[in-house]
Automatic annotation (TrEMBL):
The keyword Membrane applies. Residues 157-171 have a biased composition (Pro residues). It comes from the Bacteria. Pfam families: DUF2637 (PF10935). Residues 172-185 have a biased composition (Low complexity). Residues 156-186 are annotated as: Disordered. This is DUF2637 domain-containing protein. Keywords: Membrane, Transmembrane, Transmembrane helix. The chain crosses the membrane at residues 9-30, 50-72, 79-97, 109-126.
Amino acid sequence: MTKNQAERAAILTAGIVIIALTVAAFWLSYAHLADVARQHGLAKSPERAWAWPGTIDLFILAGEVLMFRAALRGAWDGWAFALTAAGSLGSIALNVAGVGTDTLSLDHVVAAVPPTAALLAFGALMRQVHGLVTGTADAPEPVDESVAVVAIERPQPGDPAPEIAPAPAPAEVPSTAVPSPSAAPAVPPALVTHARKLADAHRDKTGEPIGTDVLRVRLGVPASMADAIAAQLA
């Protein structure tokens, strides 16, 4: 098993455990609040007694989902945080108060555990989902490692020697002159295609065009090759 496969298996296992914990904690908290409702005014209406806890516990669900949406946008939603806090504190307080004042302190702890666990488990679940979504969005695309093969014709025995034109006299070139584009190294089309994907992803993430230095580092090519690729992307 590779490292990535082990990480995926760990995330999947943690997600299953967190979902089971969230469901169990919410059910225990909800059922206890339904018992409290039956003992304080809703004994004659089982339907209303079971619906009443939703007016508290569902605030946690709504607030966590809104906070998750805000996190995906890279923003902060104070209203979502207020909904989550109100629902969580209200659920914990009513679960504990429903035990009564003439009981042992351990009974109050037992009543407080499910709503607290529901809050923490649901928060952990949203964090896992957020990590998976943002991790997938920011993951670099796979590198196309196909290399263009250039066929080189080798001279065969008996072929006439190629004519070589005399080299022209070198011209004086200022030290600040820019090399001619014709001197740029040949770039395989597959490498240009991959570089264009990197440039698009960089522009979507930063809002700026990708630089030559970034191309050189990300592609692992010499500076001259990175300049030639940048010229084709421009």
